[in-house]
Amino acid sequence: AQSVTQPDIHITVSEGASLELRCNYSYGATPYLFWYVQSPGQGLQLLLKYFSGDTLVQGIKGFEAEFKRSQSSFNLRKPSVHWSDAAEYFCAVGADTGRRALTFGSGTRLQVQP
Amino acid sequence: DVKVTQSSRYLVKRTGEKVFLECVQDMDHENMFWYRQDPGLGLRLIYFSYDVKMKEKGDIPEGYSVSREKKERFSLILESASTNQTSMYLCASSPEGAASNQPQHFGDGTRLSIL
Question: Which residues of A touch B100 (CB under 8 A)?
Answer without folding.
Answer: 32, 94-96, 98-102
